[in-house]
# Entry
Amino acid sequence: MGAIKNTRNAQKIQLDVCIGKDGLPVGELAYVKDGAREYSVFAYSQDWLRHPAHFTVSPDLALVTGHQVRKPPTKDDTRFFLALADTEPDAWGRRVIARAHAKERKKDPTLKALTELDYLCAVDDFSRIGALRLRNDKGDFLRTVEQGMSATAPLLELEHIFKASRALERSQESAQDLRYLLGKGTSLGGMRPKCTVLDDDGTLALGKFPSVKDERSITRGEVLALRLARLAGIETSNARILIVQDTPIAVISRFDRTHEHGRIAYLSAASLLQVGRNEERAYTEVVDAMKTVCVEAKADAQQLWRRLVFNHLITNVDDHLQNLGFLYVGNGLWRLAPAFDLNPFPDKDRESKTWLSEDTGPITTIETLLEKASYFHLAETEALAVLGEVYGVVTKWRSLAMSAEVGLTAASVEEFAPAFEHSEMARVKALIRDR
# Structure
């Protein structure tokens, strides 16, 4: 991995942090594990600090010389500086890594338990989210696969990945299944099975699979939500359904790459606010932060409010701050990233996971959103106009759901109906009519 130094029971591993397609050195990361204590230390390189394009790669890393220490505030928080933490594998990826390691330990009991650095370094370099990259003292980017091999599979291999994912969910996976899944995980998402793939045009995409626990077509539901969102004036990635083994798989384009495989720096909203994993924060705090870092803060705030309206009307209540992000545009400035992980939840209460503001609490009614519209740089008439546009699109959800592009059956449409047809939609209709 990197240079390893042991002092009594303490272990220190050093890695280079680089950025972009060309792997420009940014600084050095040291990971320290001393018993139960785990933390990291980072120092910018002088070349990066003098580089004309330098910027603060993580909001908790000031652009200064010398070492900066990241100690997790709680045992549940990341050991790494937050922009690097955004590249850690999601819960599904961690599950794959842990199961593969457990099988290896059965064969070799001398293998040590996984550390948080092991998880961070197990992400495939080619598909790691954003622009930051890790390199060991041999000059290899992590995770690097064998020469001539690729950890990022083309679309034609989706069937094999799906079979391996299904076996893992059923605890029937073989060592070969795990080898096939390693490195194909993602940083965006949760426990649901997924992988990184190369689309037909050579660009990166996410492949999202149904789970054995699903009671409705989650993959078709997400593609429906993303397509509705785009019609409602929300920037989203391209999303479509592919049928593999008679199973609908969602293929969603990655937004952190250029067509030439250039890498775009990425920050989650949680990292932007420097939020602990168990902290509750509000969208108004995101707007406050956007005023200082976004190149078009007003337009991004208005776009964010549009998304909140859309989430509320389709009952997308999995709106934690890891599901909101920003892309670097240069000169130390960022912009709101396209919307992702949009899912209608017909079986859940219509209450946002992230609060609207510290004084209003979570979003439960459209009136709450309208009352705070001015905070998002929208006058009352402008907010009502946005509300009307989003409402008009959501009312057409049935026809889009049953279109060839989404492919929900009539029975499945009825399963999703409570997410789209509810008292809040009736309330919006009355507000628009009475304006």
Notes: The first strand starts at residue 3 and ends at 7. Confidence is low (pLDDT under 50) at residues 1-6. The longest helix spans residues 297-314. DSSP finds 15 helices and 17 strands in the chain.
